[in-house]
Amino acid sequence: MSEHQQAAVRARRRWRSMIWSIVAIFVLAVALPSAGYLFAQTTTGEPQRQFSEQSESNPRSDMWRDGRRGEGGFTTQTGPYVTNQMMTNVGENYRQIRTGPVTTLGGWFLVIVFLAITAFFLLTGQKKIEGGRSGQTIVRWQAYERFLHWFTAISFIILAITGLSLLFGRTVLIPIFGHQGFAAYAQLAYGTHNVVGPVFSVGVLMMIVLWVRHNIPNKTDLEWFKQGGGIVGNKHPSAGKMNGGEKVWFWGGVFALGLTVIITGFIALFPNWGFQTREIMSWSLIIHAVAATLWIGLFLGHAYIGTLGTEGALEGMTRGRVDTAWAKQHHDLWYQDVVASGEKPVPEEELRSDGKQASPGGSRPAGQQGS
Amino acid sequence: MARMKFLCDAERCIECQACVTACKNEHEVPWGVNRRRVIVMNDGQPGEKAISVACMHCTDAPCAAVCPVDCFYTTADGIVLHDKDLCIGCGYCFYACPFGAPQYPQQTAFGVRGKMDKCTFCAGGPETAHSQEELTKYGTNRVEEGKLPLCAEMCATKALIAGDGNVIADIYRKRVMTRGGRPQTWGWQAAYGQDV
């Protein structure tokens, strides 16, 4: 082996030992401090102590915990309002929600909706019939439909006033009338609300059944919504007998909120049915109040558009006939259908000169109303 | 001024119903209306416990908070009373109360309940003390005579104690110290707040 070869072997060996030393240093630097765990593990090899008396439940404390959560017990007392629970937290939720968001947010919601509608009216004014009235009228609502509408509307308003009085009376009316004056009124409002409620429900259910055929959503509504219903500006999106907005009022208001209010209302109104626990009752009352508040908000919009907001709209629900110019402007597709079905518009003068105020229900066959 | 409270010692209550009977008899409470009731937990099992429950006269009373006609008031002694002339019988207080204390003479269709009735801590109502009106509407007024609620005074084992919160808490504390075991001031946290 030459001198040169020996030097190369030495150099390689030096490198190898250097690398292995570095690896060993790293491995041991990590492993050695952990050796303590290994030691501990092997020296305490005996079975770990089981803290069974803590992990097992204590029947006494379980009983009190369940009792506080509303677990029922046994009681010999009888009566419609006797509960077998020593306490329950249901009421606390009811209290917090009712005196909290329902009265505060609900109250401000109605105030803001009212102010927004007022501001909108002041800014834009009434939506006039473009080009004026034509003087020709066609039938929009039959007599029985108008009766149903006003029957439901009047009971709605009675329920809204009495219901809002009970919800906000303590905040708003007691400072004005005093406790005794308000209590006398509240007793009357409570009784009225409870009797008119079921009567109103009949109206709402009949509306749903009778008017659902006018309110089936279609492509025209999509276009109507895209153009914002023509509420702002001078656009007049097409619409059948019911436009997109009216369908929202039908499905969102009369159908969804209406049924919610009716169901929760009946639950609250007939405690004698017996299935209503305090939990069911308090949640029904909360849902009833929230749905009714939203519905009243929507109603303010509906009432505005139907009366002050649109020239020529209200007469469709009062005398049942609307001006053809109004029909073309707001419900063009429906107008075309009515004309196509062969109905002849009747001039205003004829209606007035006719002493008996030509009842649309009587003078026209009912079948013409379908659209 | 005293702060009146009820405390029911579950280690002593033997479910004899004397408090219930005393209350009904003292105030001529109508049938079906129960100002006080005894509830037995784990009835018939080892470790069963009986508790006498009535209006606890809460510090921040939920019934008063939800009442639409604001007919509740708290006396200087911390007793929660209500005015039956204002009550419209809507039932809200019954749904808000943690203890199921408010009672009504009726449960009929169209939400007719009649005027709410509940434990008065034997302190009558807003009418003139010891008047016929007070007697018919709210029952007798023992507090006015310097007496404590009859249910507690009748209690044979002194499980149900009534009176100033500090005094009855002291009595109960002595009992727990003597007999050992854990204190069980049932319902106090819900009725009188976190710091009792």
UniProtKB/TrEMBL annotation, chain B:
<dbReference type="InterPro" id="IPR017900">
    <property type="entry name" value="4Fe4S_Fe_S_CS"/>
</dbReference>
<dbReference type="GO" id="GO:0051539">
    <property type="term" value="F:4 iron, 4 sulfur cluster binding"/>
</dbReference>
<keyword id="KW-0479">Metal-binding</keyword>
<protein>
    <submittedName>
        <fullName>Formate dehydrogenase beta subunit</fullName>
    </submittedName>
</protein>
<dbReference type="Pfam" id="PF13247">
    <property type="entry name" value="Fer4_11"/>
</dbReference>
<keyword id="KW-0004">4Fe-4S</keyword>
<feature type="domain" description="4Fe-4S ferredoxin-type">
    <location>
        <begin position="4"/>
        <end position="34"/>
    </location>
</feature>
<keyword id="KW-0249">Electron transport</keyword>
<dbReference type="GO" id="GO:0046872">
    <property type="term" value="F:metal ion binding"/>
</dbReference>
<keyword id="KW-0813">Transport</keyword>
<dbReference type="InterPro" id="IPR050954">
    <property type="entry name" value="ET_IronSulfur_Cluster-Binding"/>
</dbReference>
<dbReference type="InterPro" id="IPR000813">
    <property type="entry name" value="7Fe_ferredoxin"/>
</dbReference>
<dbReference type="GO" id="GO:0009055">
    <property type="term" value="F:electron transfer activity"/>
</dbReference>
<feature type="domain" description="4Fe-4S ferredoxin-type">
    <location>
        <begin position="78"/>
        <end position="107"/>
    </location>
</feature>
<dbReference type="InterPro" id="IPR017896">
    <property type="entry name" value="4Fe4S_Fe-S-bd"/>
</dbReference>
<keyword id="KW-0411">Iron-sulfur</keyword>
<keyword id="KW-0408">Iron</keyword>
